[in-house]
Every structure is written in C-alpha cells, then in structure tokens.
Amino acid sequence: MKALYDAGANLVGWYDRVTADIWDPTMHWVAYVVDGNAWSVQGDRWCGPVAGTTCLDRQGCVVAWGSDQTPEGTSIPVTPPHPVRPITPMTPETPMTPPEPLTPPTPAGGWSVMSFGGWLEGR
Fold first, then answer.
1. Total number of domains in the chain
2. The pTM is what?
C-alpha cells in the first residue's frame, strides 16, 4: 500500500496497487482503478488517469502522488469506457503513518486546481 499526498505533501489517501483500490486516510474505500483509470466509489464517476502512483485529473494535471515516483502531468486524457464495478473489497488494516515527504517541485503539466476530495467527486 502506497501513501498518496497532495501538492502540499499532506496525506490524502492510500493506493493498493495489488488490488487497484484507493482508500482515504481513515481506510474508507473511495476509488478503484481499471486499466489505468480511477473511478469513484460514490457515483462510479471517472476521476482521471492513474500513472504509477500519480493520480491525474481529467485535464492531465497532478491531484495526488506517491513518494515512490516524481509526480508528472500528461496531456489531456481521453475519457475511457465505463468499466464493470468490482465487488466491495475487505477493508485492510490501517498502515502506519509514513514520514511526511518533502514537497516536490511543481510537476510537468502543473498541479490540479482540484482537491483530492473534489477529484473523487468529479468536480
């Protein structure tokens, strides 16, 4: 499970790359990833692409990033077809709070104007 951070290096969630699930800091299932795209659990809305541990908005700008890679934006992605929603996963144990990473430099493509919560809501 990899910690996800916002532009200010605040912990906003966790990404389990094995199960392709995204959890908020209190371990509520908030999104699932299918074919490199995140979908919100609430409303099954397309949030945007996920590249490694970098979550991008629908404009290709970085919303959240994992400290295991340098966050980088992309060009505007193409809206993918809606996937079949997976079954609700079992809630994992809360990982230990990781040390706060250094705030990364502004990524190529820039930071999203969306918060992580706004990204999940599709705003």
1. 1
2. 0.93
- 78 CB burial (10 A radius; 0-12, 13-18, 19+): exposed
Two structure tokens written together for 59: 């404009």
Separation CA 78–CA 59 (nearest Å):
9
Residue 123 lies in a domain: no
Establish if 122 belongs to a structural domain.
no
pLDDT in tens, 59-78: 999 999 998 889 999 999 99
- Comparing CA positions, the residue from 3, 70, 85, 69 lying closest to residue 37 is 85
Distance CA 8, CA 16 (A): 22
**Which residues, other chains included, contact 84 with Cβ-Cβ below 8 Å and sequence gap of 6+?**
none
Place of tokens 């979550």: 55
**What distance in Å separates the CA atoms of residue 120 and residue 1, rounded to the nearest whole number?**
19
CA distance 92 to 76: 33
Integer Cα distance of 93 and 110 in angstroms? 33
Residue 31: which domain range?
2-117
